[in-house]
Amino acid sequence: MDNKKLYVGNLPWSLTGDSLREMFASFGEITDAVVISDRMSGRSKGFGFVTFATEESAQKAVAEMNEKEVEGRKLVVNTAKPREDRPPGGGDRRDFRRDNRGGGY
Length: 105
Description:
This protein has three helices and six strands.
């Protein structure tokens, strides 16, 4: 697992990748910083990822930034977990409907 990549949640909607990078720059060299946005609207989803050059920098950032208030919101900062394999489109919704109708269509 990559302990240099951090998940940063509960971000203010106004934050960009550049401002996220600036917010974490004091903890060490950052190799990547991105705020995740909705594909359709382009609006921030309120979370992002910061990747540091070293694990030590990442852990220092977690210790100091988790629950820090930024623009009235308490950040959630922790080591990023690997993305789980998911079916495209969020799964087959027909199975959900069938299961809840008690016996199919």
